[in-house]
Amino acid sequence: MKRLDGRVALVTGVARGQGRAHAVRLAREGAHIAGIDIAGPIDNIPYDHATPDDLAETARLVEAEGRESMLVQGDVRDLANLKKLAADTVQKWGRLDVVVANAGICIPATWDESTPKIFQDTLDINVTGSWNTVMATAPHLIDTGRGSIILISSYAGKKMQPFMVHYTTSKHALTGMTRAFAAELGAHNIRVNSVHPGAVDSPMGSGRMQSRIAETNEANPRLAPMGTPFLNKYAASTDQIADAVAFLASDESSFITAEHLSVDGGAQYF
Length: 270
Fold this sequence. Notes:
Layout: E1 8-12, H1 17-28, E2 32-37, H2 52-64, E3 69-73, H3 79-93, E4 98-101, H4 116-144, E5 147-152, H5 165-185, E6 190-197, E7 200-201, H6 209-217, E8 236-237, H7 238-249, E9 260-263
């Protein structure tokens, strides 16, 4: 028997990268998968954006695991859209058990390069989008009688990410949001935890992302080594982050809530 047989999971930012890895891994553990992704351009991001074809590929991979999927194109900044997806998920499969608020953006910019739009978009997607995800799904988890909500934060949500005041702010906000939701939803047997990746080998590193990070590092080279892992490998695979998500989604973590699980090779301590 698989760890999530008979259960249903909803994942945001599901088209590729970590979101795809979470969806496929949870499907492998037995869950049907609902998901959402903007799958289109986002202002100011230096890496390649996800596409509808990416979303379709995630659906194919989920179904290759023998599970059903319902993946839609949409924006986590739209609460009504998320409420509709959550309701459609329950209508299709009769329940909702696991929620992974994964959608997020990362824009390298020194403090004086950052603009009001960069700051607002980062907070709107990373923070408000996660809040929307919980608000849209928690009532259905309450109806199920239990559940696991997993917010994808970052190394930047425990320490800080140099040259990304906006991103660091957003990921620290998710750390606090995790604790606050865990406190109130615990009365309904719903656990809320956060996962904190360091560097991850994913499409977020595509396009101009690496060169843009190098440019911002030049503003203060002393800060550039921050976040270096203790292990010999610099970046985690998306599957290694999905391992942590699968653990928190399963009954193996049934008495763990309000916890902040790092998958960063020790980078938060460097």
